[in-house]
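If you are new to this repository, start here. Below is one unmodified record pulled from the training split, so you can see the exact layout before writing a loader.
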Amino acid sequence: LGEINRVSLANGQRITLPLAVGIEGTFVRDVAPSPDGTRVAFTVAWYPPGWSTLDGDIYVANIDGTNLRRLTDAPELDDQPAWSPEGSRIAFRSRRSGDWDIWVMSATGAGQVNLMENQLPARATEHGPAWSPDGSRIVYASDMDSFSYSKLWTMRPDGSDKRRLLPQST
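And here is the target side for that same chain:
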């Protein structure tokens, strides 16, 4: 469960990346290659003893498995890493604030910032961050204005100018 595989679309050949994340009781998920293809970000997740929910953190490594580095180390789950187009920042989802929020950090793990803080007092679930091709916006799913289902939203990388992408249906 601690493997990351790269599959060739041309011939179907599978190559297992030599990442040393074989920590007992953990598994790897949410694999995201960097825009230049030299690094990979991913989540190492586990069930803490006595918990029924996952905990986990985001790691990054070179594509050849070297330079493995843990970027987050907070209580609760950090997952769904998404590289900015130039590869200098990573947006991710975290539950460390008590709600599922979108955060952003440097690709080194520095400067972790919750982009959803100004949404209070409303409670919402955000997930699936992705960067626009020019890096000027982050798109994400949120149930902010209707808890029955998620809608697509967008914001600037500093968390400002949040907008729902599609108008509400009538």
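Two things worth knowing about this chain: The mean pLDDT is 85. The radius of gyration is 17 Å.
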